Amino acid sequence: MLEVDTTALKTNSALSSLLTNTFLRITPAVANDASGNPVQPIDGTFALAAAAFGVDNLPAQLVNFTLNMEDETLTLSFDDVMDVSSVVVAAFKIQSTPTAHLAGGIGLSYDLQSSTSSSLDGYVVVIDLSFDDKLALDRILGLASVQSNTFLTLTANAINDIDSRDVLSVTTALQATNLFPDVTAPSVTNFTLDMGTGDLRLTFSEAINTSVFSSTTITLINAQDQCDTAAAASPCNNTDVSVGG
Predict the structure, then answer these.
(1) 17 pLDDT higher than 90
(2) Which residues have a Cβ under 8 Å from the Cβ of 168 and sit 6 or more positions away?
(3) Strands (E), 142-228
(4) Which of 166, 163, 162 is nearest to 154 (CA)?
(5) What pLDDT does 93 receive?
(6) 55/10 Cα distance (integer angstroms)
(7) In whole numbers, what is the pLDDT of the chain averaged over residues?
(8) How far is CA 85 from CA 82, 121, 152, 175, in A?
(9) Are 134 and 72 in contact (CB under 8 A)?
(10) Cβ-contact 163, 97 below 8 angstroms
């Protein structure tokens, strides 16, 4: 069956969860015999009971994952239908090498803390990175910046399948199938100025690399909609002060 079919069955406990609630109906269009005769239909009134029913007893496992730092999402693909309400984000560790999670292992790592998921139950679960988790990942240089430094491990309590079984833990770190970097320019969301201490505090939309921060590019002006002194063809009438200049 297709994943969409399996998902529909496994998310409906009243259908095909036991031998006693598994019946079949078909139309003549399902197949023809060697002479071209269509199969006799079976309607719902005389639905055919299953002769046998096999229960899924295998734990689900993570097949692959993608980290999108632009959309701020971690997309997980499993081999079974997963119960999204059971997600424990702290059980997911993003790391820069295959051995960063091991005792004595080399590399960087970060355990998710406050991210959430609004996905529907299914084979694919999308974790929406929280502001704090995205900020933490951005601040750890050398982690989750390219595919080659993006790996994932998880413990068995990270998520359950639709039948409440723990996922198979990932102890051999899995490398990201794709890593999409952040390509959106950061913006200043607000600032404060304390004339008593001389502190100008800027708040940005994402983590900033302070090693290339240049205070001399900041100008304080006395009103909005003022002339840009640096770009103006003729002198401005602004009252302004260049910070650090």
Answers:
(1) no
(2) 59, 60, 61, 62, 156
(3) 151-154, 160-161, 170-175, 178-180, 188-194, 199-204, 219-221
(4) 166
(5) 98
(6) 11
(7) 89
(8) 9, 8, 21, 25
(9) yes
(10) no
* Whole-structure pTM value: 0.77
Tokens of 67: 């980290």
* Coil, helix or strand at residue 136: helix
The conformation of residue 109, written as its DSSP 8-state character, comes to E
Contact 113, 133 (CB under 8 A): yes
Look up residue 71 and give its DSSP letter: T
Token pair listed for 58: 């295998």
What are 93-122's pLDDT values in tens digits? 999 999 999 988 899 999 999 999 999 999
For 7, 13, 21, 44, 172, the CA distances from 49, given in Å and listed in that order, are 21, 17, 8, 11, 43
pLDDT tens-digit series, residues 192-242: 988 889 888 988 887 777 777 788 888 888 877 666 655 555 556 555 555
Q: Would strands 73-83 and 62-68 be described as parallel, antiparallel, or unpaired?
A: antiparallel
- The pairing of strands 92-95 and 48-49 is unpaired
- Nearest in space to 25 (alpha carbons), one of 41, 10, 14: 41
